[in-house]
Amino acid sequence: MSAVQEAFDFLKKADTWFLATVDGGAARVRPFSNVNLFEDKLYIQTGKVKSVSKQLIANPEIELCAMVDGWTLRIAATAVTDERVSAKQAMIDANPLLIDWFKADDDNTHVLYLQGATAHYSHLFDGERTETF
Is 14 within the bounds of a domain? Predict the structure, then answer.
């Protein structure tokens, strides 16, 4: 299994994961659930009207964190905006809760893929390891 597939599977299993961004000099963290694996890249999604979208544009360096069965996953990466309708539609198709709120061709749907990602897995009793994708 590829490192990006493993990270995607972990985030899907976690259901809710947390995204950290920078707002000026302050950290901001919020829960997310929308994730997709498209063209072998891990994608996240938000709305362009939200403050998180503005933070991601101003400073695309992010970290996300999730926990499943005692394992934690932290991913540090650069979030890169993808304006293609195909990427937006793939995100909506993979996350049915988005259908009522977003459209692939609207001016609000903001999808981003993780570039230069380092995924760090750790467990209190079973050690830790790092993967990149």
Answer: yes
User: Which residue shows structure tokens 């905006």?
Assistant: 81
What's this model's pTM, rounded to 2 decimal places? Answer: 0.94
Q: Are 86 and 92 in contact (CB under 8 A)?
A: no
Tell me, yes or no, whether 130 lies in a domain: no
For residue 53, which phi and psi values (nearest 5 degrees)? -65, -45
Domain range holding 32? 3-125
The pLDDT tens digits for 71-125 are 999 999 999 999 999 999 999 999 999 999 999 999 999 999 999 999 999 998 8
- Kindly state whether residue 132 falls inside one of the protein's structural domains: no
User: 114, 110, 105, 121: which is closest to 43 by C-alpha?
Assistant: 114
